[in-house]
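chain below, 192 aa
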Amino acid sequence: MGELKFLYLTWDDVQRLAEKTADKIKEDGFTPDIMIAISRGGFDPARIISDQLSIRKLASIQIIYYSSVNEKMKEPQVLFPLNAQIKGLKVLVVDDVSDSGHSLLAAKEYTKDMGAEVVKVATLHHKPWSKYKPDYFAEVVDQWILYPWEPNESIQDLVQMLSDSGLAKEEIPKKLREIGYTEHELKRYLRI
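prediction:
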């Protein structure tokens, strides 16, 4: 795992970050007609931000780019298309993080192609190396983010990475605790 650093987040952290992102949108004066969550990571942030902005129209699109922790596919792919009509509308696309930026660029291009009048993008996090800088985000980070909506997936990926790096099987729970995982999460999701 070498240089890879982790940022473990709780649900309270996510609420705070979504509120901070929503405040930036309000300060900018942007009022979207509809919001689009990028599935899967954008579902929870989009729901919280839609509440903060009092936007009741929330659609989704699934774009896949990561196959595992720090493992990308060649190109982002639309797995499930947009489930709403957006022609002529002001759209806010929401995801959890702008990491490489490729998925967000694909989503922005896709929504423009669907006829959106204005497309802006919001995330909780932005990484400095991303090819795309969202219009709104709460924080800039350089760690791999472990969001609270994916404990099973993240723990399984981390177990594989730690095993592949040569960490002894009995040392893996200790490393996961150091990252931030709780005893409850380890009891429920840890399989070695």
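The chain has two domains: 10-143, 151-189. The first strand starts at residue 6 and ends at 8.
thats it, cya
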